[in-house]
Specification:
single chain; about 300 residues; mainly alpha; DNA polymerase, domain 1; hpI Integrase, Chain A; 2 domains; 3-stranded antiparallel β-sheet; globular
Protein backbone atom coordinates (compact mmCIF):
# COMPACT_ATOMS: atom_id res chain seq x y z
CA UNK A 1 0.00 0.00 0.00
CA UNK A 2 1.24 3.51 -0.88
CA UNK A 3 3.71 4.83 1.78
CA UNK A 4 2.37 2.32 4.33
CA UNK A 5 5.74 1.24 5.74
CA UNK A 6 7.01 4.81 5.84
CA UNK A 7 3.89 5.91 7.73
CA UNK A 8 4.21 3.15 10.33
CA UNK A 9 7.89 4.01 10.85
CA UNK A 10 6.87 7.64 11.34
CA UNK A 11 4.17 6.62 13.83
CA UNK A 12 6.62 4.69 15.98
CA UNK A 13 8.34 7.98 16.83
CA UNK A 14 5.19 9.84 17.88
CA UNK A 15 2.69 7.24 19.10
CA UNK A 16 2.52 4.53 21.74
CA UNK A 17 3.13 0.93 20.66
CA UNK A 18 -0.52 -0.08 21.10
CA UNK A 19 -1.72 2.85 18.98
CA UNK A 20 0.73 1.92 16.22
CA UNK A 21 -0.65 -1.63 16.22
CA UNK A 22 -4.25 -0.43 16.00
CA UNK A 23 -3.47 2.03 13.21
CA UNK A 24 -1.56 -0.67 11.34
CA UNK A 25 -4.65 -2.89 11.53
CA UNK A 26 -6.79 0.00 10.28
CA UNK A 27 -4.58 0.43 7.22
CA UNK A 28 -4.78 -3.32 6.53
CA UNK A 29 -8.59 -3.14 6.60
CA UNK A 30 -8.50 -0.10 4.30
CA UNK A 31 -6.19 -1.98 1.93
CA UNK A 32 -8.66 -4.89 1.85
CA UNK A 33 -11.53 -2.51 1.06
CA UNK A 34 -9.58 -0.83 -1.74
CA UNK A 35 -8.72 -4.23 -3.20
CA UNK A 36 -12.40 -5.14 -3.20
CA UNK A 37 -13.36 -1.81 -4.78
CA UNK A 38 -10.49 -1.98 -7.28
CA UNK A 39 -9.16 1.52 -6.50
CA UNK A 40 -5.81 2.96 -5.40
CA UNK A 41 -5.02 5.41 -2.59
CA UNK A 42 -4.17 8.02 -5.20
CA UNK A 43 -7.74 7.95 -6.59
CA UNK A 44 -9.99 7.48 -3.56
CA UNK A 45 -13.69 8.33 -3.96
CA UNK A 46 -15.00 11.11 -1.66
CA UNK A 47 -17.24 8.68 0.28
CA UNK A 48 -14.48 6.17 1.07
CA UNK A 49 -14.71 6.77 4.85
CA UNK A 50 -18.44 5.96 4.80
CA UNK A 51 -17.67 2.75 2.93
CA UNK A 52 -14.85 2.03 5.39
CA UNK A 53 -17.28 2.28 8.32
CA UNK A 54 -19.74 -0.09 6.65
CA UNK A 55 -16.91 -2.51 5.89
CA UNK A 56 -15.78 -2.53 9.54
CA UNK A 57 -19.38 -3.06 10.65
CA UNK A 58 -19.60 -6.07 8.34
CA UNK A 59 -16.47 -7.41 10.05
CA UNK A 60 -18.27 -6.94 13.39
CA UNK A 61 -16.06 -4.20 14.87
CA UNK A 62 -17.62 -2.25 17.72
CA UNK A 63 -18.33 1.52 17.40
CA UNK A 64 -15.44 2.51 19.67
CA UNK A 65 -12.99 0.41 17.64
CA UNK A 66 -14.35 1.88 14.41
CA UNK A 67 -13.78 5.41 15.73
CA UNK A 68 -10.17 4.58 16.62
CA UNK A 69 -9.52 2.98 13.24
CA UNK A 70 -11.05 5.98 11.48
CA UNK A 71 -8.56 8.17 13.32
CA UNK A 72 -5.75 5.94 12.10
CA UNK A 73 -6.93 6.08 8.48
CA UNK A 74 -7.34 9.85 8.64
CA UNK A 75 -3.80 10.26 9.97
CA UNK A 76 -2.49 7.97 7.24
CA UNK A 77 -4.27 9.95 4.50
CA UNK A 78 -2.85 13.20 5.84
CA UNK A 79 0.64 11.67 5.82
CA UNK A 80 0.19 10.50 2.23
CA UNK A 81 -0.91 13.97 1.15
CA UNK A 82 2.01 15.67 2.92
CA UNK A 83 4.54 13.33 1.35
CA UNK A 84 3.21 13.19 -2.21
CA UNK A 85 4.95 16.42 -3.27
CA UNK A 86 1.65 18.03 -4.11
CA UNK A 87 0.58 15.25 -6.48
CA UNK A 88 -2.20 13.89 -4.26
CA UNK A 89 -4.96 15.90 -2.58
CA UNK A 90 -7.05 14.04 -0.01
CA UNK A 91 -8.33 16.96 2.06
CA UNK A 92 -11.91 16.51 0.85
CA UNK A 93 -11.77 12.94 2.19
CA UNK A 94 -10.26 13.25 5.67
CA UNK A 95 -11.68 16.67 6.60
CA UNK A 96 -15.46 16.00 6.42
CA UNK A 97 -17.43 15.17 9.54
CA UNK A 98 -16.91 11.66 10.85
CA UNK A 99 -19.43 9.26 9.26
CA UNK A 100 -22.30 8.36 11.54
CA UNK A 101 -21.70 4.93 13.02
CA UNK A 102 -24.94 3.05 13.49
CA UNK A 103 -26.10 -0.54 12.98
CA UNK A 104 -27.23 -1.44 9.48
CA UNK A 105 -29.37 -4.55 9.62
CA UNK A 106 -31.36 -4.41 6.40
CA UNK A 107 -32.24 -7.41 4.27
CA UNK A 108 -32.80 -9.95 7.03
CA UNK A 109 -34.15 -12.93 5.13
CA UNK A 110 -36.99 -15.18 6.19
CA UNK A 111 -36.43 -18.95 6.31
CA UNK A 112 -38.17 -19.30 2.93
CA UNK A 113 -36.01 -16.57 1.39
CA UNK A 114 -32.89 -18.26 2.73
CA UNK A 115 -33.91 -21.55 1.12
CA UNK A 116 -34.61 -19.75 -2.15
CA UNK A 117 -31.25 -17.98 -2.04
CA UNK A 118 -29.43 -21.26 -1.46
CA UNK A 119 -31.36 -22.94 -4.27
CA UNK A 120 -30.42 -20.04 -6.54
CA UNK A 121 -26.75 -20.45 -5.61
CA UNK A 122 -26.93 -24.21 -6.27
CA UNK A 123 -28.42 -23.79 -9.74
CA UNK A 124 -26.60 -20.68 -11.01
CA UNK A 125 -23.16 -20.72 -9.38
CA UNK A 126 -20.14 -23.05 -9.24
CA UNK A 127 -19.89 -25.68 -6.50
CA UNK A 128 -17.26 -23.72 -4.55
CA UNK A 129 -19.34 -20.52 -4.60
CA UNK A 130 -22.52 -22.37 -3.70
CA UNK A 131 -20.77 -24.13 -0.80
CA UNK A 132 -19.41 -20.84 0.53
CA UNK A 133 -22.90 -19.29 0.39
CA UNK A 134 -24.28 -22.36 2.18
CA UNK A 135 -21.74 -21.98 4.99
CA UNK A 136 -22.67 -18.31 5.45
CA UNK A 137 -26.41 -18.97 5.43
CA UNK A 138 -26.46 -22.16 7.50
CA UNK A 139 -23.87 -21.32 10.15
CA UNK A 140 -24.04 -17.54 10.48
CA UNK A 141 -20.26 -17.18 10.26
CA UNK A 142 -18.72 -13.84 9.47
CA UNK A 143 -17.61 -13.61 5.85
CA UNK A 144 -13.94 -13.59 6.85
CA UNK A 145 -14.37 -16.55 9.21
CA UNK A 146 -15.90 -18.62 6.39
CA UNK A 147 -13.14 -17.51 4.01
CA UNK A 148 -10.46 -18.80 6.37
CA UNK A 149 -12.15 -22.10 7.33
CA UNK A 150 -9.86 -25.12 7.46
CA UNK A 151 -10.89 -28.66 6.58
CA UNK A 152 -9.82 -29.74 10.06
CA UNK A 153 -12.36 -27.31 11.55
CA UNK A 154 -15.25 -29.58 10.51
CA UNK A 155 -16.59 -32.44 12.62
CA UNK A 156 -19.84 -34.33 13.23
CA UNK A 157 -21.75 -34.39 16.46
CA UNK A 158 -23.26 -37.64 17.71
CA UNK A 159 -26.63 -36.65 16.22
CA UNK A 160 -25.02 -36.14 12.81
CA UNK A 161 -24.97 -32.34 12.84
CA UNK A 162 -21.97 -30.76 11.11
CA UNK A 163 -20.06 -28.69 13.68
CA UNK A 164 -17.65 -25.92 12.73
CA UNK A 165 -14.85 -24.92 15.08
CA UNK A 166 -14.21 -21.22 14.64
CA UNK A 167 -11.28 -19.21 15.87
CA UNK A 168 -11.05 -15.90 14.03
CA UNK A 169 -7.57 -15.03 12.87
CA UNK A 170 -5.86 -13.88 9.71
CA UNK A 171 -4.11 -16.35 7.43
CA UNK A 172 -0.70 -15.03 8.49
CA UNK A 173 -1.51 -15.60 12.14
CA UNK A 174 -1.84 -11.94 13.12
CA UNK A 175 -4.58 -10.82 15.47
CA UNK A 176 -7.96 -10.12 13.90
CA UNK A 177 -11.01 -8.38 15.38
CA UNK A 178 -12.12 -11.48 17.27
CA UNK A 179 -8.79 -13.29 17.57
CA UNK A 180 -8.66 -15.94 20.24
CA UNK A 181 -12.41 -16.42 20.65
CA UNK A 182 -12.92 -20.06 19.81
CA UNK A 183 -16.44 -21.44 19.53
CA UNK A 184 -18.38 -24.36 18.06
CA UNK A 185 -21.08 -23.51 15.52
CA UNK A 186 -23.76 -25.97 14.28
CA UNK A 187 -24.52 -25.93 10.57
CA UNK A 188 -28.15 -26.20 9.48
CA UNK A 189 -28.74 -29.40 7.51
CA UNK A 190 -30.17 -27.58 4.46
CA UNK A 191 -26.70 -26.48 3.34
CA UNK A 192 -24.67 -29.57 4.24
CA UNK A 193 -24.99 -31.36 0.88
CA UNK A 194 -23.58 -28.36 -0.97
CA UNK A 195 -20.58 -28.18 1.38
CA UNK A 196 -19.84 -31.92 1.15
CA UNK A 197 -20.12 -31.83 -2.65
CA UNK A 198 -17.55 -29.06 -2.77
CA UNK A 199 -15.17 -30.87 -0.43
CA UNK A 200 -15.19 -33.98 -2.62
CA UNK A 201 -14.67 -32.07 -5.88
CA UNK A 202 -12.47 -29.08 -5.01
CA UNK A 203 -9.47 -28.60 -7.27
CA UNK A 204 -6.77 -28.46 -4.60
CA UNK A 205 -7.41 -31.44 -2.34
CA UNK A 206 -4.12 -30.77 -0.53
CA UNK A 207 -4.98 -27.25 0.59
CA UNK A 208 -5.81 -26.94 4.31
CA UNK A 209 -8.44 -24.34 3.42
CA UNK A 210 -11.96 -25.39 2.49
CA UNK A 211 -12.16 -22.48 0.05
CA UNK A 212 -8.70 -22.33 -1.48
CA UNK A 213 -7.40 -19.68 -3.83
CA UNK A 214 -6.92 -20.70 -7.49
CA UNK A 215 -3.87 -18.42 -7.65
CA UNK A 216 -2.25 -18.57 -4.21
CA UNK A 217 -0.74 -21.98 -3.49
CA UNK A 218 -2.51 -23.52 -0.50
CA UNK A 219 -3.93 -20.12 0.46
CA UNK A 220 -7.57 -19.07 1.03
CA UNK A 221 -9.76 -17.17 -1.39
CA UNK A 222 -9.36 -13.39 -1.32
CA UNK A 223 -11.63 -10.77 0.25
CA UNK A 224 -12.38 -9.55 -3.25
CA UNK A 225 -13.59 -12.99 -4.30
CA UNK A 226 -16.07 -13.06 -1.41
CA UNK A 227 -17.61 -9.74 -2.40
CA UNK A 228 -17.74 -10.69 -6.08
CA UNK A 229 -19.49 -13.98 -5.21
CA UNK A 230 -22.07 -12.14 -3.12
CA UNK A 231 -22.62 -9.63 -5.92
CA UNK A 232 -23.17 -12.53 -8.33
CA UNK A 233 -25.71 -14.11 -5.96
CA UNK A 234 -27.46 -10.74 -5.49
CA UNK A 235 -27.87 -10.39 -9.24
CA UNK A 236 -29.10 -13.96 -9.71
CA UNK A 237 -31.41 -13.87 -6.69
CA UNK A 238 -32.81 -10.40 -7.36
CA UNK A 239 -32.07 -9.06 -3.87
CA UNK A 240 -29.05 -7.31 -2.41
CA UNK A 241 -27.01 -9.76 -0.32
CA UNK A 242 -24.34 -8.16 1.85
CA UNK A 243 -21.55 -9.93 3.79
CA UNK A 244 -23.60 -9.87 7.01
CA UNK A 245 -27.05 -10.58 5.50
CA UNK A 246 -26.92 -14.32 6.12
CA UNK A 247 -25.39 -13.90 9.57
CA UNK A 248 -28.23 -11.67 10.73
CA UNK A 249 -30.78 -13.95 9.08
CA UNK A 250 -29.30 -17.10 10.69
CA UNK A 251 -29.26 -15.59 14.18
CA UNK A 252 -32.79 -14.24 13.73
CA UNK A 253 -33.97 -17.68 12.60
CA UNK A 254 -32.43 -19.33 15.68
CA UNK A 255 -34.04 -16.80 18.00
CA UNK A 256 -37.48 -16.96 16.39
CA UNK A 257 -37.31 -20.77 16.43
CA UNK A 258 -36.99 -20.75 20.22
CA UNK A 259 -33.25 -21.24 20.68
CA UNK A 260 -32.31 -19.66 24.07
CA UNK A 261 -30.71 -16.22 23.77
CA UNK A 262 -27.58 -17.29 25.65
CA UNK A 263 -27.08 -20.14 23.15
CA UNK A 264 -27.55 -17.77 20.21
CA UNK A 265 -24.98 -15.45 21.78
CA UNK A 266 -22.41 -18.25 22.11
CA UNK A 267 -22.99 -19.43 18.55
CA UNK A 268 -22.59 -15.86 17.28
CA UNK A 269 -19.39 -15.32 19.24
CA UNK A 270 -20.67 -12.12 20.83
CA UNK A 271 -19.36 -10.91 24.17
CA UNK A 272 -22.77 -9.69 25.39
CA UNK A 273 -26.45 -10.46 24.90
CA UNK A 274 -27.01 -6.81 24.08
CA UNK A 275 -24.78 -7.18 21.03
CA UNK A 276 -26.68 -10.29 19.93
CA UNK A 277 -30.04 -8.56 20.35
CA UNK A 278 -28.99 -5.92 17.77
CA UNK A 279 -28.81 -8.68 15.14
CA UNK A 280 -32.25 -10.14 15.77
CA UNK A 281 -35.50 -9.09 14.16
CA UNK A 282 -38.55 -10.73 15.67
CA UNK A 283 -41.31 -11.51 13.19
CA UNK A 284 -45.03 -11.14 13.93
CA UNK A 285 -45.48 -14.89 14.49
CA UNK A 286 -42.68 -14.98 17.09
CA UNK A 287 -44.11 -11.92 18.84
CA UNK A 288 -47.57 -13.47 19.02
CA UNK A 289 -46.22 -16.75 20.38
CA UNK A 290 -44.31 -14.91 23.09
CA UNK A 291 -47.57 -13.83 24.79
CA UNK A 292 -49.67 -16.90 23.96
CA UNK A 293 -49.50 -18.31 27.49
CA UNK A 294 -49.71 -14.98 29.27
CA UNK A 295 -52.92 -14.74 31.36
CA UNK A 296 -54.49 -11.62 32.82
Amino acid sequence: MFLRDEFLTYLKHIRAYKTVQIYSGAIERLDELLEIAGVEVESLPPNILDKFVLYLQDLDYKPRSIQTMLSGVREYLKYVERNSEGKISLKNIYNPKTPRIKPSYKNILSAEQMRQALSTADTTMSSSKSAYISVLACSGLRANEARLLLVENLSRAENGTIMIRVRSETEDGENAAKFGKERMVPMLSFGVDSLLAHLSSRRNQFSPYIFSSPRKTNGPISHRSVFLWLEELSENFGMKIEPHTFRRSYLTLLHNSGVPDITVQKIAGHSTLAQTSEYIKMDADALSKSVLDVKL
